[in-house]
Design brief:
By secondary structure, this protein is mostly helical. The protein has a domain at about 45-110. The chain is built from three helices and three strands; from the N terminus they run ααββαβ. Helix 3 (about 95-105) links the parallel strand 2 (about 80) and strand 3. The termini are far apart. This is Alpha/beta hydrolase. Keywords: Membrane, Transmembrane, Transmembrane helix.
Length: about 120
Amino acid sequence: MKRIGRMLGYVLLCLRLLVGALWLFGPYEDATLTPQSVTVNPDLDAHFASVEGAFDDITPGVEKRVVWAGDPGMQTEWAILYVHGFSATSEEIRPVPDRLAEELGAKRGNSSADARLGARA
């Protein structure tokens, strides 16, 4: 039994050393951690259409969009921004974001939509 414990200890030590070496000497990705200024067309529907018009591989029905609570462009007190995972789409958990926004009387944006959806701060 002592022998098994000693072997397990050596294996765990080697594993720790390997993870430490990978962390210390492994590749690093350059990252810009400062916020960047972005100019957004006040007409968000037109802005999303123009930005995404540059891509021909967007699945129909999952484009960036704003679901307005009331008239298009009208400010609301709340804005819900639904950001899905890398391989997901905005349709994955629908209608949860829609119902939440409806309950709050908020507008809702999809995906990596700009967080400034006209909500009052």
